[in-house]
Amino acid sequence: MNWLDEERQRRDAGQRRPLLQSQHELINSRYPGCTLERCCECDDPTGRAGRGDDSLYTDEGDGPYCYDCWQGIISNARLDRTGTAGKED
Known about the structure:
The protein is mainly α. Helix content is 40%, strand content 0%. It contains three helices and no strands. The radius of gyration is 17 Å and the shape is elongated.
């Protein structure tokens, strides 16, 4: 068994570890979608590959988020700062 198979077994067991983008590409060439990062909010692919690949996380460590969900978080944070979030017109 080589490291690609070992990584697949780890992921199937729910274990994750940081990988380089080149490692993601190698794993996904054998096991398509194996290391695909998914949004914690909507479960869509993020198009990114972990914290080392500019994935979107809040300062509190929540994430990863896809771009659309991230934009919603940023919009809500701006509203919270202005004191208008949750208030009706």
